[in-house]
Amino acid sequence: MSIKDDDQDIKGGIFEKGEEFLDMFRKGQEFTRDLLKDNERLRYRVVQLEESLKRKLEGPVEQGSGIVDEELTSKLARYENRLSELEARLQEIEAENVDFVQRYVDVEEQNNNLANLYVASYQLHSTLDYQEVLQIILEIIINLIGAETFAIYLLDEKLQMLNPEASEGVPVSEIPAVKFGEGVIGNTAKTNESYFNENPSSDLKVLLLDPLVCIPLTIKDDVIGVITLFNLLQQKESFAPVDFELFTLLAGHAATAIFSSKLFTESKRKLSTYQGFLDLLSQ
Q: What's the predicted TM-score (pTM) here?
């Protein structure tokens, strides 16, 4: 299978995943909306019953109606029991309401995360312009992961070197190239395994060689580069579960987008060169 076929398969998979995400999003909204409606209906019914019971208890007793004291006492006892049951039920409903609200917040957060993943996937494969793909990856890392300083390395297979191709928070010229297989970054490319530093340094010079996170960019089993995160934004204290999903997305989809756009740009440049040469021959 060619790289083009792989790319088309991956795009098709992305759209299918996107539809699944949107379907889950809609189902989650409908489920939560139904639960809140049922909860509200039950609360309203409890209030109605309480008001009805209160009116009966506080209402005047007709003289000479034939209702004896024992019957009144019996009815009052039943009403009190019923009131106790309603109060207990109300407490249960209020507890359920708190649980529903929390579940609604969780579902909404999860849906937002899924929507963000879908948007990120769609954006990555929306263009074949190499520089635009790099810019989209930078924006995903900033806006969705919350990284402040980071770099994208690409592998030069001939020289076996990882060269910084784009960065944020530190100039590319200040980021050293890394030999494939050497150091934390080079070893990430060699082993094709993500690296997470549990005790990162606060010194940027140290972080440039021992980053907070290293994510290999892979197409199937071939590594074409590494994304390194040196530190996070101030308001971002730690990684969320969705961040690790984004790391997986970047590892595969960003690599494919970079590789495809690079091939397209090179092909376009060669075509332009050949066309110019043919124009000279035809004159």
A: 0.63
